[in-house]
């Protein structure tokens, strides 16, 4: 009772936040009468809204908690990740978004497997059961499950540290809230919610940066830190981890902006190319502000915290410290970090569930009640992820980085080459995926990731496989358009 009286602002914000989520769920349900509305908002979304959703979807508890923890371990070299993320966000909107939006609109693609099927399978006969669609859908489902584990873990620790709620109960409460508005409202609800969550995340990141740097002695206190003998590794390129490994980690984490289905699905929803241009700057600038504020927190934490054993708890420990944050800031950040968790979770859930039903279940057991089955898939998939999150493997960043590696080696060659090169076939993509996944597993199994991150050899081999097999094909790929007419594959510039 005393805690409730003390943190009345957090409770009030949580009540208002939950109410807004439910209202967005209602609006989303009204706009999601058909399957296109539920999956991609009827392709009528503005660039400003989708741009905010893009960076809000990416920035999760991993950004608030995991990346600050890695900065604590690896020092300024970890800023490589932030730089690559901002660069690849711009690249995604500049070079991937426009042609992918046009392709998805013309070919009525609703998921990434839909894109791969339309682009690479040359006949509509049994297209839905083609191994390429099944394999790509399974990769999405598995990688989404890994990502959800990380987000649930972050949300569970949030409730545990801030609200003194048991970890398991925090996971369950997060599950209940996200499943409710995601399953009911679909893409429209998710995007509308992301806008609200994105604003909270922007404000929250600025608040964290201000109070942490103030507690550390100001922005210039970094000079004090660099003068300490036991902290000099923080300012060395290979101080905390070999730079080749760190660069691989950064690459696998940032390439997902070009190949992650939850990010690419945003382009499906844009109304036209003009909206892509608007969204490009919103998404990139928003992400730059969030990362620019949160990544230094781990560095400055060396001047505030001692005896750190779990770097995933650095930000929760700081935010819960009355000497660092005033009570009102703590209460506001509770809601901001919770918003960060949910903004990624809802998108991952929607992409995973829609892919699970449309590209794995429906081809073998079709139903006229596709919306109902997709909503059921959202609920079922989230429950499985929450149960696994009760005892998750690894730390938050490690889990999300591996999921990003999977997306990079499986979808980067297929999406980029598919949009900008006429050659390539279903066989080419399947071999590229198989080689990339095998390289990831073998590299990790042999213990070679200590010297070079597995994403480098895996991505090189998967891309090379795609290129060589495509060059060996006698002619450009043909495919069947929605009207049933066979056409030669083309670029979508």
Quick take:
The chain is globular, with a radius of gyration of 22 Å. About 2% of the residues have low confidence.
- Domains (count): 1
Task: Provide the succession of SSEs.
Answer: HHHHHHHHHHHHHHHHHHHHHEE
Q: Give the terminus-to-terminus CA distance.
A: 60 Å
Helix content: over 70%
Shape: globular
Structural class: mainly alpha
Describe the strand arrangement of the main beta sheet, using strand numbers. 1-2
CATH fold annotation: Sodium/glucose cotransporter
Percentage of residues in DSSP E strands: under 5%
- Write down how many β-strands occur, each being a DSSP E stretch of 2 or more residues: 2
CATH superfamily: Sodium/glucose cotransporter
Q: Which architecture name does CATH use?
A: Up-down Bundle
Poorly predicted parts? 480-487
Number of helices: 21
The biggest sheet, with number of strands, parallel, antiparallel or mixed sense and barrel status, is:
2 strands, antiparallel
The Rg value, from CA coordinates, equals 22 Å
CATH class term: Mainly Alpha
For the residues shown, what is the average pLDDT? 85
Tell me what the structure shows.
By secondary structure, the protein is an all-alpha fold. It has one domain: Sodium/glucose cotransporter (Up-down Bundle). The chain has 21 helices and 2 strands. The protein has a two-stranded antiparallel ribbon. Helix 5 packs across helix 8, helix 7 packs antiparallel against helix 8 and helix 8 runs antiparallel to helix 17. It is globular and about 65 Å long. The N and C termini lie far apart (60 Å).
């Amino acid at each position: 009772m005393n805690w409730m009286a003390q943190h009345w602002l957090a409770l009030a914000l949580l009540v208002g936040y939950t109410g807004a989520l439910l209202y967005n769920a209602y609006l989303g349900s009204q706009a999601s009468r058909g399957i296109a509305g539920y999956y991609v908002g009827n392709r009528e979304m503005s660039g400003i809204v989708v741009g905010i959703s893009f960076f809000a979807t990416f920035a999760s508890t991993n950004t608030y908690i995991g990346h600050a923890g890695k900065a604590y371990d690896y020092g300024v070299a970890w800023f490589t990740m932030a730089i690559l993320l901002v660069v690849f966000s711009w690249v995604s909107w500049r070079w991937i978004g426009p042609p992918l939006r046009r392709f998805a609109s013309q070919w009525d693609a609703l998921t990434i497997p839909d894109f791969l099927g339309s682009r690479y399978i040359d006949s509509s006969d049994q297209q839905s059961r083609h191994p390429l669609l099944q394999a790509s859908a399974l990769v999405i489902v598995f990688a989404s499950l890994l990502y959800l584990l990380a987000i649930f873990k972050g949300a569970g620790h949030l409730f545990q540290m801030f609200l003194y709620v048991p970890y398991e109960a925090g996971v369950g409460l997060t599950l209940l809230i996200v499943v409710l508005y995601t399953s009911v409202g679909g893409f429209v609800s998710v995007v509308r919610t992301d806008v609200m969550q994105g604003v909270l995340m922007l404000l929250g990141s600025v608040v964290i940066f201000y109070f942490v740097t103030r507690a550390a002695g100001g922005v210039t206190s970094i000079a004090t830190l660099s003068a300490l003998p036991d902290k000099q590794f923080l300012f060395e390129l290979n101080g905390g981890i070999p730079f080749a490994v760190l660069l691989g980690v950064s690459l696998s984490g940032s390439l997902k902006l070009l190949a992650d289905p939850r990010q690419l699905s945003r382009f499906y929803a844009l109304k036209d190319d003009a909206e892509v241009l608007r969204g490009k700057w919103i998404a990139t600038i928003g992400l730059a502000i969030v990362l620019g504020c949160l990544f230094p927190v781990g560095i400055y934490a060396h001047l505030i915290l001692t005896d750190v054993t779990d770097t995933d708890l650095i930000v929760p420990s700081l935010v819960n410290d009355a000497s660092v944050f005033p009570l009102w800031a703590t209460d506001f950040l509770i809601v901001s970090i919770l918003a960060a968790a949910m903004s990624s979770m809802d998108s991952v859930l929607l992409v995973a569930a829609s892919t699970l039903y449309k590209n794995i279940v429906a081809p073998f057991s079709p139903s006229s009640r596709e919306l109902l089955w997709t909503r059921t898939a959202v609920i079922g998939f989230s429950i499985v992820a929450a149960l696994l999150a009760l005892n998750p493997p690894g730390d938050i960043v490690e889990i999300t980085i591996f999921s990003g590696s999977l997306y990079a080696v499986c979808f980067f060659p297929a999406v980029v080459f598919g949009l900008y090169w006429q050659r390539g076939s279903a066989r080419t993509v399947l071999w590229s995926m198989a080689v990339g996944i095998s390289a990831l597993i073998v590299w990790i199994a042999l213990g070679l990731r200590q010297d070079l991150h597995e994403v480098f050899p895996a991505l090189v081999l998967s891309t090379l496989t795609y290129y060589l097999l495509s060059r060996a094909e006698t002619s450009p790929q043909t495919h069947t358009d929605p009207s049933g007419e066979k056409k030669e594959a083309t670029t979508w510039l």
